[in-house]
Amino acid sequence: MRSISTKISLAFFAFFAFVTMGESTSEGNNKRDGSVLPYSTPSCGSNTKHACKFTCRKKPHCQDLGFDRSKIPCSCPAQICPDGKIYAYYSQKPLTDEELSEQPHVRATCFPHGCVPAAIAPFHKQIGVCTPPEGTDPEPNSS
Q: Which pTM does this prediction carry?
């Protein structure tokens, strides 16, 4: 009888540890609004041909890196998290620079002039011409 209650207790403990592990290790920050960068990164464009039925697993403390949905109609966004690292929606580890170069926000940017700001670009090297209005941060196209 005692071994059954011990097994139940161990199973409960293992389940509790599994559930809380992702929350405690993911961000280290209780920020709930998803704003990590000093500017927004929404998606732009529209997908009129395909119904995208992906279910994207997202971290609630991270900021989605939007992309042009008219160029890549169905994909999940990468996310930048408070630890400064960028994760794919399916990944629990930071993206390498090579993996980052294949993410939708890099391949189909919403920023004007093909800009991908250094904070979210592979190798932290700005892509394209990023010329925000004087005294402001870059903003994506609103189309």
A: 0.66
The answer to whether residue 4 is domain-embedded is: no
DSSP one-letter string for 90-140: T-SSPPPHHHHTTSHHHHT--SGGG-B-GGGSGGG--BS---PPTTS----
Lookup result for tokens 């920050």 = 29
Domain total for the chain? 1
At 7, the amino acid letter reads K
Dist CA 116 CA 130 (whole Å): 7
Averaged pLDDT, 13-25 = 37
Q: Look up the domain containing 47 and give its range.
A: 30-124
Nearest to 66 by CA among 110, 99, 34: 110
C-alpha neighbours within 13 Å on the C-beta side of residue 100? 23
Using one digit for the tens of pLDDT, what is the confidence trace for 29-49?
A: 334 456 899 999 999 998 766
Angle at the Cα of 122 (from 76 to 88), degrees rounded to 5? 25
